[in-house]
């Protein structure tokens, strides 16, 4: 069976954000752009810096070695901006000075205090989507068990579905994961479903399940066995999630354990304590005319009274037309009522494939911006409140593909869609492009964009003569990708510098950690885009990196959790083998690490 694009992480999926392919034609992996569409690094940076830069931007660019200012307050387990210090117990083993051999554990920060941060309430941990956690004293002295073995420092393991691409979310003593019905937690359902499972954070005990039947249209709108790929966003006793049926749902975090059926939706099919309590539901197919391609997967984000999401509107089964170009692609919805505040269909009939990414939020010079990756390969920044008449209000837009790139079916072209989630950092946005993983390898690009500008801030604009010219209003700070034309950086002429990606970057201490689908993890300088190192995981990467306590955690398709040292020098700390593929991203919450592989959820002791 073909696998749909959002086996991810979504991851970012995208978020996001992870899928399995459409019914696309057979695909051949590509290692070079099509002839005549080669891309260079652009700008003023030399090839040995592995990136291009443009000056005169409005971004406050730090020096490469400067410690960044924390963009999010540290939280206690109740979500309050207060950190608690816990004295860690001394370890018997000192921190190794060299990378251990494969499979060896390595305790860290022996004898030092641990900073324990709080919940992880959404995909990316915060509206900026930067997956950097401020927990310290994190030990990597754990080992997943094989089969029914308990493992070492594994607190609990809970069964998920047979295919899991959702990222764990932890809030108020509960853990939520999107998956399929392979766990069979609700005996009344034997068939394929999309589900959100809720577990007790301390014990891993199953609490309740949201059960959503598959759409009758089949794989063109709701690919079999993929379940719910979106991560919920939790605030207080409410959570919002996009289902496989292209619904935005608001759920009661307490389920029916409070002995109340909350909200305007009172006629749920399932009302046992082990079922989800639906507050309200927005059916984007029935109410808005959306045509999701293969699956709806966007992980929503909340700001004020609004919840923001992509609709996953896409192409038809033949991949030739957009059946619903006038249907919205981007939505702002009242989080309390489920009513649409504003909508936007800017990509219109230029959607390349699907729209599986997720929005992010940043604040620039006192103005909040919402970032929507479009299905046309552009990133759009809107005001959160819209224009007041039910439409979006554009601040700026940026084309993440070179103007000479071409989209071709089956991944044979050089133009890419966006599956990753934008990351806001220091008045800028970092984002890469990619395609369905079954389209194979191909040229990729990642950009850092100045979010202080307005209008079309793409690197090039039309010259009015069916050609292109450099944009004097360009928001490109740097670009990394294309080919190493002369081989100075990679040692091989024509080698791809950066390949297609579904992963969302993480930014910490002046560095950007950016994996690509082929399994290469790139460490780039935040200020310049210069590449410090590249690490080959030797397996496809669908998830995204989590940076915590000087370490970079990232999973791969071989079921390996790779742990790298954060910094300008490449150093492998350890590798942990799980029972199946890791398509999601590790979550750190309340001093524990949560990882979902293909069929199990792990709670891991990483602090004392």
UniProtKB/TrEMBL annotation:
Residues 84-95 have a biased composition (Basic and acidic residues). Its EC number is 1.1.9.1. One of its GO terms (molecular function) is oxidoreductase activity. Residues 24-131 are annotated as: Disordered. Residues 196-351, 463-565 form the Pyrrolo-quinoline quinone repeat domain. Transmembrane segments: none annotated. Residues 1-23 form the signal peptide. Pfam families: PQQ_2. Residues 106-118 have a biased composition (Polar residues). SMART domains: PQQ (SM00564). Keywords: Oxidoreductase, Signal. The keyword Oxidoreductase applies. This is Quinohemoprotein ethanol dehydrogenase type-1. It comes from Gimesia aquarii.
């Amino acid at each position: 069976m073909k696998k749909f694009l959002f086996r991810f992480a979504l991851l970012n999926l995208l978020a996001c954000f992870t899928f399995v392919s459409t019914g696309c034609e057979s695909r051949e992996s590509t290692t070079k752009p099509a002839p005549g569409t080669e891309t260079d690094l652009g700008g003023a940076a030399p090839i040995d810096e592995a990136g291009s830069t443009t000056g005169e931007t409005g971004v406050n660019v730090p020096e490469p070695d400067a410690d960044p200012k924390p963009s999010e307050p540290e939280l206690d387990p109740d979500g309050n901006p207060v950190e608690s210090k816990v004295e860690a117990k001394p370890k018997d083993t000192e921190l190794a000075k060299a990378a251990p051999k494969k499979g060896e554990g390595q305790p860290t920060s022996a004898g030092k205090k641990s900073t324990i941060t709080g919940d992880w309430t959404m995909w990316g941990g915060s509206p900026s989507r930067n997956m950097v956690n401020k927990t310290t004293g994190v030990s990597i002295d754990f080992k997943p068990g094989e089969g029914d073995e308990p493992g070492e420092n594994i607190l609990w393991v809970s069964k998920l579905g047979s295919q899991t691409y959702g990222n764990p979310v932890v809030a108020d003593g509960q853990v939520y994961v999107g998956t399929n019905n392979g766990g069979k937690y609700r005996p009344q359902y034997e068939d394929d479903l999309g589900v959100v499972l809720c577990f007790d954070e301390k014990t891993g005990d199953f609490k309740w399940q949201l059960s959503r039947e598959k759409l009758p249209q089949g794989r063109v709108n709701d690919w079999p066995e993929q379940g719910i790929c979106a991560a919920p966003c939790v605030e207080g006793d409410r959570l919002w999630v996009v289902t496989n049926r292209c619904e935005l749902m608001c759920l009661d975090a307490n389920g029916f354990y409070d002995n109340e059926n909350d909200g305007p939706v009172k006629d749920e099919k399932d009302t046992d304590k082990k079922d989800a309590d639906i507050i309200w539901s927005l059916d984007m197919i029935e109410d808005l005319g959306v045509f999701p391609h293969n699956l709806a997967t966007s992980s929503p984000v909340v700001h004020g009274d609004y919840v923001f999401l992509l609709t996953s509107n896409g192409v038809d089964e033949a991949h030739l037309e957009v059946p619903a170009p006038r249907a919205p692609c981007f939505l702002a919805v009242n989080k309390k009522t489920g009513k649409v505040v504003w909508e936007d269909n800017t990509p219109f009939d230029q959607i390349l494939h699907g729209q599986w990414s997720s929005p992010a939020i940043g604040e620039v010079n006192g103005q909040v911006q919402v970032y929507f990756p479009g299905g046309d390969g552009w990133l759009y920044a809107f005001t959160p409140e819209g224009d007041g008449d039910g439409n979006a209000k554009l601040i700026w837009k940026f084309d993440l593909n070179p103007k000479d790139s071409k989209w071709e079916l089956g991944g044979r072209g050089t133009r890419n869609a966006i599956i990753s989630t934008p990351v806001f950092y220091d008045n800028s946005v970092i984002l890469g492009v990619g395609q369905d993983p079954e389209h194979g390898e191909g040229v990729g690009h990642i950009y850092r964009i100045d979010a202080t500008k307005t209008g079309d801030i793409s690197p090039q604009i039309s010259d009015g003569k069916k050609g292109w010219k450099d944009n004097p209003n360009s928001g490109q700070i740097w670009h990394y990708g294309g080919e190493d034309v002369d081989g100075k950086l990679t040692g091989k002429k024509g080698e791809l510098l950066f390949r297609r990606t579904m992963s969302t970057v993480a930014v910490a201490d002046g560095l950007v950690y950016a994996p690509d689908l082929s399994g290469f993890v790139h460490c780039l300088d935040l200020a310049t885009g210069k590449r410090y190192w590249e690490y080959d995981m030797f397996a496809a990467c669908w998830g995204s990196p989590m940076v915590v306590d000087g370490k970079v955690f990232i999973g791969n398709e071989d079921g390996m959790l790779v742990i790298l040292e954060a910094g300008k020098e490449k150093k492998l700390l350890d590798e942990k083998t799980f029972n199946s593929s890791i398509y999601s991203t590790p979550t750190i919450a309340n001093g524990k690490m949560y990882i979902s592989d293909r069929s199990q959820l792990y709670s891991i002791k990483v602090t004392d």
